[in-house]
Amino acid sequence: MFAVTVTWVLSGSQLAFRIIGEQQDRLEDLLSEIEVSLLDNRQPVSPIIGGFYLAQVDGTPHRVQVTDILDDMVSAFFVDIGDTELVSARSLSPLDAARFGQLPGQALHATLSGVDGDRPGARDALSRLALRKSLMCQVVEADDSRLEVVLFDTSGDDDININSTLRELAEADTPPSLPPAGGIVDAFVVHVSAQTGDVFVQLDTADAHEVCERVAAAGEAASAAPAAPVPAAPGTLLLARYSDGSWYRACVQAPPQQDTASVLFVDYGNTSVVPLSELRALPATLRHPAQALTVRLSGVQMTDGAALRLTEMVPRDGTRVVLRVTSNPAAGVPEVEAYKRLENNELVSINATLAVEAHMSSRADRVSRQSSTASAAAAAPSVSRQSSTASLPAAAAPARGSPSPTEQLLRLASPRPPPDAQPAADAALGRLQLQPVEQYRVQRDGDGYLDVTVSFCSSPWNIYVQPYLEGGKLRALMHAMQEHYSQPANVQPLRPDAVAGGQFCAVKNPEDELWYRARVETRLDNDQVTIKFVDFGDFSYVPLEPGRVQPLPAAFRQLPAQAVKARLGGVRPADSDWTIDDCIAFQRLLGAGVFVAELLELSVDTITGEQLILVRLVDTSEAEDVFVDRVLVAAGHAVHTGQYYAS
Q1: Tell me, what's the pLDDT at 396?
Q2: Alpha-carbon distance 404 to 92, whole Å?
Q3: pTM: predicted TM-score of the whole model, two decimal places
Q4: Domains (range + CATH), the chain
């Protein structure tokens, strides 16, 4: 016997694996070399069928062979994994045979001896038992065209014969279940409960597909048959017609009342009250386990708004999600991280999307963390970090018959450095990247107006705004950062003495546990640093720990820093300085978040050297425009100076 790592599952009995040993070690070194090569020299190619190329897929390098060409896509066989996928021809680069072609493809295909791979759910069962696991392999038969094996999982106290386990599963109608914590599975969100925070999913398995198809066929037969009274005692499993006109399996929840019954649709998780005339007996052949599983999204408070947003992102039209299990207790509701594939084939964390959007909208309830003025005003509503514009499109995703995105997510989670990381020497030292993040600069052009989102303020003379039209880019960046730093493989060692003022980095904010772009301001004696959130304008301090401060890859430094310093022009304090009451009133005025800014003057802050824009802010969200300066003056908090505009 010899040790292998299963890299791909083709069916319930066919898989691909790599032999663990010197060759796999050479492959890891080779892929690291390929990654550096692709960073330095990406060249377009005109692919030909049968040709070998390098492919950058989801930020991970691969060696592939083109098996077919479809317009601007190619069918690529991943020679070191064993699967075939459609990838963009633009992701291909030339393969230097002398450097990268000497090591043979490491994926070997094999068939499990004595296993029926065609039964419903067999592929999913094999994936749960073997995919990306290190197993022991025993060869039963081998020739030029066939490799038949038996696999053993020896990681526990007792060895598990994978082949025998699959045969036993084939004999039982087992209920669907999630893998242990850390496992990944494809699923469909079928119902969301804002009241309980529960999310109901169906696993994307052959078993679930077959159950749903057979229930649909039984529903058609029930529609054609004359109605007949059926027992509807609590706990009875029946066919029930839902409001969409289709029939589903349902369990009666309470004794019928007034010719209606409350039922739970066991394959979807939602409840409804249906007329008794819309109930039918369930054929004995459909008494399968319920297909709806209850989960909760890790780190997400499932409010009515979050539930609505989730249903927008994953409507019940065949939208597939990928679930990564974060906890799966023996008793209780499992927690998961959910991902959705976008039209460009990228996977985006739904949890991060909901958390970021909730945080951005709730940021209005917090005020400055950097001054006593802000501390005194903490009870007052302040500013909103972003508008409520949807940040993750609810576009249609691949339907049930399309290729699974699980392998893509597994590659995202693979323990390899990000493609745009610094050279290995820098990573080993734990240095922060020195390349700066450029500052967004406001230009005086057009009509002299700019739509802005107020991201931070402490007084009328200390404001930070973001260009509103750039908001979509910032939201996409925020989502990508949560995704990137949630992967343990992307968290690099940090050497505190390599951190200095002026460096740009990623910081996990202690207040909300989200990652932001930041600039180190000063080092403190106790291995802490003060930092400025460059996209929002506020300050904080964090400990110099790998879990709090991380290098900022080049991909996250492309978007200019979004926080632009601003000052309300044409007004001065009614007293000698802005009082706490003045600041609180001003922060309440900015609670709407999005304003039209009339650009009065473009200047430079004499202390920080950053661009300073003097603005007149107008709230245009209501039928009548509201000028912030006029409201402040009318309330006695400010006085018009007569400069820039007439009051």
Answers
A1: 29
A2: 21
A3: 0.41
A4: 2-53+77-170 (2.40.50.90), 178-341 (2.30.30.140)
